[in-house]
């Protein structure tokens, strides 16, 4: 007497048989939904972000919502804060940047915008400067009105327009001082000057920052006899 198995039973037996031959156990249990537990990430407060910002007596600030305007003897700067952080002035007159939400992005923005705010206050009251030095035979810099003219060994001089809000001085034809109240603008213009002739590692020729240390390389040794 022959018995016939249902298709579902025969498929299960076939899967088990193939699994035994290949050394793999094949389960015939139906698939179930897998659930994931979302774990709340606890962000620590930024050590830089929680530091208060002192406002000098010659600096006036104007706070309107997420917009901050800082005005001092050297100039005026403004910034708009993202929704992850907020700024407020306490009773002692200090400016504080706080997190509006407890997220990882808020923790990142906290320290960043505290630094940007402090740079604004320092910039409009004291200012920033970058010093560069020209190293090389025939390398020199000259100011012609609002243009900085550089002789860096090319077939033609390099002429750069000084942006508004920045001051450039040339000392002894080989030292350049870039100053201003906006730290990012000062750093950007100084970097654009250095980019024309970065210092090379063998003789150190080029345009370098005054406090920059060039890692020197040893040149090719002569043929030994």
Largest sheet: 4 strands, antiparallel
Q: If you compute it from the alpha carbons, what radius of gyration comes out, rounded to the nearest whole angstrom? A: 33 Å
Q: Count of helical segments? A: 3
Structural class: alpha+beta
Helix content: 10-25%
Low-pLDDT stretches are: 16-21
Q: What percent of residues are in strands?
A: 25-35%
- Average pLDDT across residues? 84
N-to-C terminal Cα separation, in Å? 102 Å
Query: Which series of helices and strands comes N to C?
Result: HEEEEEHEEEEEEHE
Enumerate the strands of the largest sheet in spatial order, edge to edge or round the barrel: 10-11-6-12
Shape: elongated
Strands, count:
12
Commentary on this structure:
The protein is an alpha+beta fold. It has 3 helices and 12 strands.
Concise synopsis of the structure shown:
The protein has helices at about 5-20, 105-125, 185-195, and strands at about 60-65, 65-70, 75-80, 85-90, 95-100, 130-135, 140-145, 145-150, 160, 165-170, 175-180, 205-210. The protein is built from three helices and twelve strands; from the N terminus they run H-E-E-E-E-E-H-E-E-E-E-E-E-H-E.
Write the layout of secondary structure elements.
Elements: H1 7-21, E1 60-64, E2 67-71, E3 76-80, E4 85-89, E5 95-99, H2 104-125, E6 128-135, E7 140-144, E8 147-151, E9 158-161, E10 166-171, E11 175-180, H3 183-195, E12 206-209
Antiparallel strand pairs: 1-2, 2-3, 4-5, 6-11, 6-12, 7-8, 8-9, 10-11
């Amino acid at each position: 007497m022959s018995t016939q198995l249902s298709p579902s039973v025969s498929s299960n037996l076939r899967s088990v048989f193939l699994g035994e031959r290949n050394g793999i156990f094949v389960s015939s249990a139906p698939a179930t939904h897998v659930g994931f537990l979302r774990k709340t990430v606890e962000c620590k407060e930024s050590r830089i972000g929680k530091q208060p910002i002192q406002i000098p007596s010659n600096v006036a600030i104007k706070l309107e919502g997420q917009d901050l305007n800082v005005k001092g003897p050297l100039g005026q700067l403004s910034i708009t804060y993202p929704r992850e952080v907020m700024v407020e002035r306490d009773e002692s007159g200090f400016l504080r940047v706080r997190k509006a939400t407890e997220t990882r992005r808020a923790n990142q923005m906290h320290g960043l915008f505290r630094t940007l705010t402090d740079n604004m206050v320092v910039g409009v009251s004291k200012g920033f400067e970058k010093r560069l030095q020209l190293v090389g035979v025939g390398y020199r810099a000259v100011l012609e009105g609002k243009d900085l003219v550089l002789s860096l060994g090319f077939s033609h001089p390099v002429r750069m327009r000084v942006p508004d809000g920045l001051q450039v001085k040339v000392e002894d034809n080989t030292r350049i001082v870039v100053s201003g109240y906006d730290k990012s603008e000062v750093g950007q213009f100084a970097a654009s000057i250095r980019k024309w002739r970065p210092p090379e590692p063998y003789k150190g020729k080029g345009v370098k920052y005054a406090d920059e240390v060039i890692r020197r390389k040893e040149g090719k040794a002569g043929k030994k006899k």
